[in-house]
C-alpha cells in the first residue's frame, strides 16, 4: 500500500495507525474522525497521520480505506464516499457482524466498487485512541470474508496488509462468520451484560449492597459488560438471528443445569463441569489466552 | 492462637498454611490431608507444617480447626472429629454456601461444640497446594457468619485470626450470605459453565472448529468454567434454592434482551448497556478488580 485512510480512529483505528506508522507500512496515513474528543487525544498523543476534514481529501490520496467506525455509521459514510471512489480503491471494515453490513454495502455503495470485509478478533472493554496499542493485532486472528462476489485481487492485497499488521489470517464466508462469532463473542458479551443487569436488579430488589463482594466471579463479567455500548448495540442488531438462536440454546442448557441442581443429579452435573474444563486447556493450547491463574491479575 | 489444624490442604488450605507460617500466626500448624498427590506437593514445596495421619493427633494439639475441604466431606469429617472435640475448640470452615452446611453441622456435630463459619471471598480456577499463595487473602473480604446461635467469643477470636491473615471482615447472617453469593459468585460460575457448554454443543451441532476464535469473549468465561468441579457441584447443590431463583431472574432478563434485539429497541438496549458499564467503575473503585484494560493480560 502507498497511502492508507483510516475512517474512525478509536481503539482499533488508532491501533492500526500506530502499527502502520511504527512499521512504515504506508507512505502516508490519513485519518477521518468526527469526534472532537478523539481528535484532541490523537493530537495530544502526537500519533503520526494527517487528520483530514473532508473525506474527499483522504479518499483521493489513498489506495486502502479502512472503516473502523460503529456499523451503524456505514450507510452515512458510504453515501459520503461514493462520489470519490474508484474501482481500484481497496475498501475494508473491521465490523464484528457481516451479513447485515453487506446488505447496506450492496444497497448503497456505488456500482463497480469492491468492498472486502475484515474482522480482526481483538479489542478491549476500553474505547478511544488513548487506549490503542501498536501490538493489538499481534498474533490475533483476522477473518477475511470470502464470498462468491469477493474481489480476489483485493482480498490478496488485504491478506498481505493484515499479515504486515501482525495478524494471522483465516478466510470465511459471511454466513459461517456470523454463526461462529454469535457463539464465541456476541453471546458471551450479551450474557455478561445480562449477568451484571441481573445483579443490579437483585441489589435493588433485596436492598443489599452486593457489588463489593464481586470478587467471587461477577467482576470478570463486569469487565466485558463495560464494553462500548454503541458498538455492541450494532453487533446485537446486526446479528440478531444468530444471536437469538444462541440465546435459545443457552436457555435450554441453563434449564437443564437448573434441573440437575434441583434434583441433585450428581452424575449429570459432574459430567458438565468436567467437560467445560477441557475447553480452557484447549484455549490455552491454542494461545487464545494466557496461561496464568486468574489472568495473572493478582 | 497457639496451634492450628488445617483440614484439607488445597488452594485455600495451603495458602492459609503459607500465611500462618510466614507471619508466625501460630506456634504449630498441623495438616490433615487425604490426597496422596496433595501430600506429595506439600512435601516437594517444603511447606512448613506437620502432616498428621490421624485427625485425633491434630485436634488434640490445636486450638483452632479450619476445614478447607469440599462441603460434601463435612459430615464424614465431623463424625471423625466428634470424639476428640472440646467446647473451647474454635472450629471454622471456608465453604461458599452456609445454610445446608449448618444443617449437617447441627445434625452431626457433638452437642456443646461451637462451629463459627467463615467465607473468604477469594480463590482461583486452579486447585491444589502448588497454586497456593501467602497473599491469597490480602485485602479480600472474609464473611463471618453471625446467627443467633453464634458463639460470640469464638467469633471475636476468628475475627482477629482473619485480620492477621490480611482479610477485611464483614459479618452476615446465613440467609443474607447465601442470597448475596448466589448472585455475585454462584450464578456467575453457573453461567460461565453453561456458556462454555453451549459453545461445545454448537461446535458439535455445526461441525465448526470455533474454540480457536475464543479471544472475542468466550475465553474469559472459560477461565471460570475451569474451576474445581467437586467444589462447585457442592456449592450448586448446597445453595440450590437461591441459585434457582437467580437463574429465573437471569432468564427473565435474557428474554427481555432478546426481545430488545429482535425488535431493534434502541432506547431499551442502550439503557441496559450503559447501566451495566457503571458497575465496572464501581467494582474498580471498591478495589474488587484491577484497573487495567483486559485485566492487563496482554
Describe this structure in words.
Two copies of one chain form a homodimer. Helix content of chain A is 51%, strand content 11%. Chain A is an alpha/beta fold and 298 residues long. Chain A folds into two domains: 3-172, NAD(P)-binding Rossmann-like Domain (Rossmann fold); 176-263, 6-phosphogluconate dehydrogenase C-terminal like domain (6-phosphogluconate dehydrogenase C-terminal fold). A five-stranded parallel sheet of chain A has the order 3-2-1-4-5. The first copy, chain A, has a three-stranded mixed sheet with strand order 6-7-8. The radius of gyration of chain A is 21 Å and the shape is globular. The N and C termini of chain A lie far apart (43 Å). The mean pLDDT of chain A is 96. The interface between A and B is large, with 102 and 103 residues.
Distance between the termini of chain A: 43 Å
Q: Based on CA inertia axes, which overall geometry of chain A fits?
A: globular
Write down the oligomeric state: homodimer
Assign the CATH superfamily of the largest domain in chain A.
Answer: NAD(P)-binding Rossmann-like Domain
Strand fraction band of chain A? 5-15%
CATH topology of the largest domain in chain A: Rossmann fold
Helix content of chain A: 40-55%
Unreliable segments of chain A (pLDDT under 50, ≥5 consecutive)?
Answer: none
Strand segment count of chain A: 8
**H-E order of chain A:** EHEHEHEHEHEEHEHHHHH
Q: Which two protein chains have the largest interface (Cβ within 8 Å of the partner's Cβ), and how many residues from each? A: A-B, 102 and 103 residues
Count of runs of 4 or more consecutive helical residues of chain A: 11
Round the Cα radius of gyration of chain A to an integer and report it: 21 Å
Q: If you average the pLDDT of chain A, what whole number results? A: 96
Report the major sheet of chain A: 5 strands, parallel
